[in-house]
Amino acid sequence: MTGIALVHFLTPVAAQDATGKQQDGATVLQDIIVNGGSGGVIQADGYVGKSSATGTKTDTPFIEVPQSISSVTEQQLKDRNPQTLLDTVAYTPGTRIGAYGFDPRFDSFSVRGFDVTYTGIFRDNLRQPGAGSSLFKTEPYGLEGVSILRGPSSALYGATGAGGLFNLITKRPTEEPFHEVQLQYGTEQRYQTQFDVSGPVNNTDPFYYRLTGLYRDANTEQISVPDDRIYIAPAFMWKPDEDTKLTILGEYSRTKTGGTAAYYNDPAGNVTDFFAGNPAFNDSVQNQARIGYEFEHRLNDVFVFRQNARASTLNIDADWAFAYAPNKIDPSLLDRSAGTFDERLTAFVIDNQLEAQFETGAVDHTLLAGLDLTKLRWRSLDGRGVSPPLDTNNPTAGAFVAPIDFDTRTVQDQWQVGTYLQDQIRYDAWILTLGGRYDWVSTDTDNTDLSTNALTTISQRDKAFSGRIGLGYETDFGVVPYASYSTAFSPNAGINQETDQPFKPTESEQEEIGVKYLLPSSNTLLTAALFNIDQKNSLYYEVVNLPTGPANIQVQRGKIRSRGLELEANTSLDNGLSLVASYTYTDTEILEGTTGTVGNSVSSVPRHMAGLWANYTFQESSPVYGLGIGFGSRYLGKSYTSDANTAQNGSRVLFDAAVRYDFGAIDKKYDGLSLQVNATNLFDRREAVCSAGFCYRDQGRTVIGSLRYTW
Length: 711
Known about the structure:
Layout: E1 5-11, E2 15-16, E3 22-23, E4 28-34, E5 43-45, E6 48-52, E7 60-61, E8 69-72, H1 74-80, H2 85-88, E9 95-96, E10 110-111, E11 114-115, E12 121-123, E13 126-127, E14 143-150, H3 154-157, E15 164-170, E16 178-186, E17 190-200, E18 207-217, E19 228-241, E20 244-257, E21 263-265, E22 271-275, E23 284-298, E24 303-326, E25 333-360, E26 363-391, E27 408-427, E28 430-449, E29 454-473, E30 479-490, E31 495-496, E32 501-502, E33 506-518, E34 524-546, E35 549-572, E36 577-592, E37 608-617, E38 627-636, E39 639-640, E40 648-649, E41 652-662, E42 673-680, E43 688-691, E44 694-697, E45 702-710
Parallel strand pairs: 12-15
Antiparallel strand pairs: 1-4, 2-3, 5-6, 6-7, 8-14, 9-10, 10-11, 12-13, 14-15, 16-17, 16-45, 17-18, 18-19, 19-20, 20-23, 21-22, 23-24, 24-25, 25-26, 26-27, 27-28, 28-29, 29-30, 30-33, 31-32, 33-34, 34-35, 35-36, 36-37, 37-38, 38-41, 39-40, 41-42, 42-45, 43-44
């Protein structure tokens, strides 16, 4: 046995000739490399994810995971050309994007009614921590896919929330040479160039490389809010034999945007078209870097050892201003507060795994034991002041702001150690998954008032057990019904700015039943799930009146329940049609909370959401061979503007589209050259959306043209 298995899926797909052209009507045996448990790499056929290590940390078919799981495959990324992580996950079930309107600063979103911004983003199966405004930015061009595991998942992963986790999978070296360059131009003077090259270092040694890079100079729909980025991601793989592999993954990026992108809310709470910030005092620059490795070695026919690790750091330096009320003397002026902050987050994560595959009589076991550690240090310098008022008669004018000194300094150190054990048991058609984990967390927070040098130190120690049990049955015709129970425990980095106290850990539990069906005669995966989640001590953003004025900060509330239904279909057929479709019903209820909110729904969580993206490539027999078109629609039902449930956000449907042409269809000398145009929010619908009592506007239409050449 070796550490890499070759899995054969016999599906009627278009075969390829030596030039890579598809031959209609041919059936080929597709070889899909299964990469052990490293990184959660997705094994996919077009839009249809078949397996990954995200659900179990061992390479497991999706239909055998006793929890709702789905994926955004590499082909979906190519067809939709997403520019942000929010665009990337927009068509996945239960995922609520856009609750904070247009805002390129952060990738904030929720799933199943729970925010996943801080606890639900993983990179290559390792936790990617966040605190305060220190959130790692994601460049979609650096991804080869996303695996989504919905619901509490701490039995394997430790610090995760109730909604689940989104595992972002970094591009890895390929054993076959691959080269790509792209030029892009889009709305708001968006200029971008990017490249991706990979293959063996030479013809003799078992060394492989990949280098992905991007440069972007772009404005946005909001004045003084650019979307500039430099991104470079080197990767290296050493595979001396079939039993051993070492992959090194690196990244550096620099992103420049605005300190705020919000619009002013008038005294009645309505969003206006006035930019709330100060164009002369609205810079935000974030530098981030990471370096990590994935090591795998098969010891014998039973045991495989893996060690995955990553060190990462980010620094964000930002100035901001915020208009919050009419001036008492001159109503044509709007008073603005101002501030500046400098944050740094460093994190180290390591996960050690030992997997054993063996039999006990008629029962097959895949046993996984692991020990992981996360160490993070977060430092925040923060200062508050005032900005000259916003002149509504000249709203785009900037106004000089004197330098603002830092008022407070916060340093937080957190250690988390977790040990886990999982057994995937197979008896005939029955699939039983048992998992348990115990975490120890130590958090020390130092708050310093820089005006007096007064120091306050808070120490917090937490520990908890998390578990999962799931049972499935694979019928003779391929349908797999399942039921599961899982829990989550998540320490929270950062502090409550209202109380100057660290956050308590968030805990959750879920019951889920569902069914999965991978059609044997079609490259189609159908799934359905019913869930019930209870969470306590959850974090949300709310507008709070601080001594320096109102601010949209993280707060911690009592207990929330979420119940719902998810339906999803993915297919890629041999006639050129690929499709993803989903529907989600989510009913959230605040069981314990502030006065006037108990029994209400969580703000900005629609009860009904649906999405459909279809892509069609004309076949060689067509007179328009080489042409491909895509069209998508995303429905968001009504939701409440605040937890008080006194007003509602209206429902809306947003449309996306794509068209592309492969010039190789004209003449083989143009092989590899293609042109693609993608449009998001095609009809430029920019309605108000309110969350936690503050209102924003939907991001407007974006159109991006891409000229791509591969060889």
